[in-house]
Amino acid sequence: MSETLPQIGDLMSATVPMVRTLSLEFAETTPERAVVRLPDQTDYHNHVAGPHAGAMFTLAETASGAIVLSAFGDQLSRAVPLAVRAEIEYKKLAMGPVVATAELGRPAAEVVAELDEGKRPEFPVKVTITREDGAVTGEMSITWTLRPNA
């Protein structure tokens, strides 16, 4: 477990109502990787008794937010992280609990260097959603930005 786990997980649970609503669990949060779990909950099932597509989207977006906060939390005094766009592909039927694993698509130092230059950097976060048996049920690509404070 990461030293940042309680800070990021607790912060997101306290400030993002959907994290609490879906009872998302933070297994790992580092600047290199974030792993978030959506427990199996019948209240959030779809018509085939698996997790609803909207719940899986929220899971993946949350994992991406966790890695962004882990990688760029030291920049919050001068920039706000914002999701710019997202695309998700549902690949296989998800049943039971699912796990989203997020990874930065660019080195954090490169993004911070652009911010240092006065730019508004954009960077991708790739997320893989898997079932307990390891099968990939979805993939998401989210573009984030660090918007400099005015």
Characterization of the model:
This protein is an alpha+beta fold. The chain has one domain: Thiol Ester Dehydrase, Chain A (Roll). The chain has four helices and six strands, in the order H-H-E-E-H-E-E-H-E-E. Strands 1-2-4-5-6-3 form a six-stranded antiparallel β-sheet. This is DUF4442 domain-containing protein. InterPro entries: DUF4442, HotDog_dom_sf.
> How many strand segments?
6
Average pLDDT works out at: 94
Backbone shape:
elongated
Give the CATH level 1 class.
Alpha Beta
Outline the low-pLDDT stretches: 1-5
Query: How many separate structural domains?
Result: 1
Q: Tally the helices.
A: 4
Structural class: alpha+beta
CATH level-4 homologous superfamily: Hotdog Thioesterase
Taking the alpha carbons of the first and last residues, their distance comes to 36 Å
Percent helix: 25-40%
With strands numbered from the N-terminus, the spatial order across the biggest sheet is 1-2-4-5-6-3
- Strand percentage: 25-35%
Largest sheet: 6 strands, antiparallel
Instruction: Supply the CATH architecture.
Output: Roll
Radius of gyration: 15 Å
Give me the strand/helix succession: HHEEHEEHEE
Pfam family, one: DUF4442
Protein name: DUF4442 domain-containing protein
InterPro entries: DUF4442, HotDog_dom_sf
